[in-house]
Amino acid sequence: MTRTRIALIALLALVIGGGFLLGREATLIWVGDRVQARGNVAFEHLTGSLLGGIHVDRLRWQGAALEVAADDVTLAWAPWWLLAGKLAFHRAGAATLDITRTPSPAGHAGIPDELHVPWRLRFDNVAVATLRYTPTQGATQFYGDVGFALDFGSRAWTLQLHRLQTRWGRLEGNGSIATRAPHTAEASLGLLPEGHAPTVPPIAIHATAEGTIDTLAVRVKVTAQSSVAEATLQVLPITPQPVRAIDASLHGFDPHHLGDALPAATLDGRLTATTGPDNVLRGHLAIDNRAPGLLDDGRLPLTSLATDLGAAPERWRFDALRLDFGSAGSLAGSGSIGAHDAAWHLETTALDLNGLHAALRPTRLAGTLTADGPLDGQHIRLTAHDGAMAFALDATANGERIDIARARASSRGGSAEVRGTLAMNPEHAFSGKIALRNFDPAAFGKYPQARLNGALSANGALAPVLQVRAEGTLASSKLFGLPASGRGRWASRGTEDPAIALDVTGQVGATNVKVRGTIADPNDLRARDLDLVLSGKDLAELYTLTGLPFPVTSDYRLSGHLDFRNHTWTLHRFKGQVGNSDLSGDFIVDLRHERPFMKGSLVSDRLDLRDLGGFIGAGGTPGKRAPDRVLAQNDYQIDRLNAADADIQFTGRSIRNENLPLHRMSAHLALDHGQLTLRPLNFNAAGGELSARITMDARRAPIRTVADVQARGLKLNQIAPGVKAATESAGTVDGRTRLAMEGNSVAAMLGSADGNLVLAMNGGSMSDLVLRLANLDIANSLIALARGNRAIPIRCLVADFTAKDGVLHPRTMVLDTEHTVIHGEGQINLRTESLALRLIAEPKDGSLFALRGPIRVDGTLANPGLHPELSGLAAR
């Protein structure tokens, strides 16, 4: 028992003493010195303890061809692994990890039979904020958010890559290499774009290596949806020419599967090459595109690519290089890539830009594209011309930034020129200036014709959020054939806030635009607080600017809050004036469909009916009529009716009108692929109601129109104040009109009308004197004058017209009172607006002296005439 107690006490003392020693920072520093003494490892400012957290300001390791450095390193030691003979850390982290390849020393003997490190090491969970990899030649590559586990075992070195953020997505995988010859190796990798379900990666990369580290058979397969690329390589890693043979192929490969921004294609290709005794890898690459197309259709216009490959250890050459675009032409030349530099030279003699992008005009461009210089400073030059059209580029690209000394496009005496820089770091800082001199986009393709003179300067950064400060001016210019000028300023709110404040004013023709406020997100132009003021001489001018079919109006000024979300523009709570009328409401333009869709809810509290003349006259000045004509002659413009779809609700709460007794209006206008429907179109009028349903089919010329109009309870003396002298009391008029018409103007439509018109009046009375005069009853008229005029009740008033080819014929036209019946006959010609009616009065009582002659109504709608028919009157 005594020995047991002594042993336990000794063990306890050992644990306590060991804990005390391991918990001291001095012990950690002593261990660090021993590690540095046994290997090519160096620590700077090592603090902490083996039982707690360990911190190193900087750690460096130097190998034969590799150098590793880490900053702000934290380590958590796992002492239980000492029982297995390993120095292990269950958690490690670093702010930055730099891996740099260095040239192998002369006479390096290659991979030894057994791989080893000074200590058997294990890292279970390593997190690195920024990884920088620098190859022997070339630019440094940056990766963010790296996580991995590493185990230097006695039989194999293994790597578990949990995540490595690249510009294409997150890379995950694992790999291992045996520590003893023949050093078998294998690896598996997968690439996951951000936001994609990890269970179904759109891009899968799988690679295996078999054999010895001196001679490896490497198989690589890349799949992206249905796209497949495969390669088999014989690799001798430690020889001057590591690739001894390659056989690679593409099978229905679609670049669009790699990213939505890339064009679609169906690529089949083959690369075969072998290395000869002179250590040059020679072969041929050929790629064919089974589904070429235009860039504006989202397709790759390339039909084939071919080149001869010659890869020596110090330089790879690409001879007889040809990029064929089918009927659009080709680029041909050569190129080479060395350890320190690269050079490319391509020429074209008849490149057709229209064959690449349908919006560009047909060309036969001749020119050259060259790039040469060191890998970290390629000088790129482009010159191309076709008659008056010319392009030029002079730029330098390296791993840090792109400098554009000059990029210029010119044609027809106008030009656009760009100068600036773009950094290639994660922030992508930029600065640039654009100068426009009589620049006309229409000279280069199917773009609006313009003459632009102005300047724009901008600077900022693209990441982590867009930061920009810019200002621009436009003067002495033309847009859409109209004089144009403007100025604008843009400025980011802050480095953490994507919002951009803007203040833009401009004038195009007679249209003035002012936009001021904040864009919350430049990616979708969502407005946080964006105010729009729009004014001008005529809303119809907006069709020229936007392609949206606004009506002809008088002077206007509107203001509201502008918003853009999901390809939809919305003008919220706008208000203003159009002519003498006020107007307010919400207006939406949805651009998500094949054609723009306009939706609005509009209200006018004080509507001047003359301001609707643009809807009625369609194409000309509101209210304008041809001389001696009542019906509007201006044509509806069919192209505008087919330019967009619409759903507009309109309410006129109070109507100002000098001619017609209209008091309130409500309408629902729908426009669908050139077919316009007003259903309903309602008015409170003359003490009653007018309701209409009108359909206009403008899908072909001339426009086909169907109108169905109903009148209920209209007061006759309010409809036609001129009859007040003839009517002692007003009756109520009911009626209905159904017309089918063809024509592009109101006059043409009514001039072709087929259908019927029925009016009937109930109640009311009229002047006895007027009735006697209608019969030319001189005797009874004198009696009426002598005893005083009296009211004669109206028993019946009916007018029933048929319409044929724009001519109205009365089937029934009768006014019945106690002593007189008046019949009407003749016609009203709406094509010529001429009147040819006869009013025939038939008395029910006798008269001593009555000429009984019909009354003729003639002339035009604008200037009607009323007089007795004189034929036979003298005899009577």
Q: Which term fits the overall shape?
A: elongated
Helix percent band: under 10%
End-to-end Cα distance, whole Å, is 164 Å
Could you give the count of β-strands?
A: 52
Largest sheet: 50 strands, mixed
Structural class: mainly beta
The low-pLDDT segments are 196-200, 617-623, 776-786, 847-851
Mean pLDDT equals 81
In angstroms, what is the radius of gyration? 45 Å
**If helices are DSSP runs of H or I spanning 4 or more residues, what is the number of helices?**
9
Assess the beta-strand content as a share of residues.
over 45%
Can you characterise this structure?
The chain starts with a helix and ends in an 8-residue tail after the last strand. By secondary structure, it is mainly beta. Strand 11 (216-224) and strand 12 (227-235) form a beta hairpin. The chain has 9 helices and 52 strands.
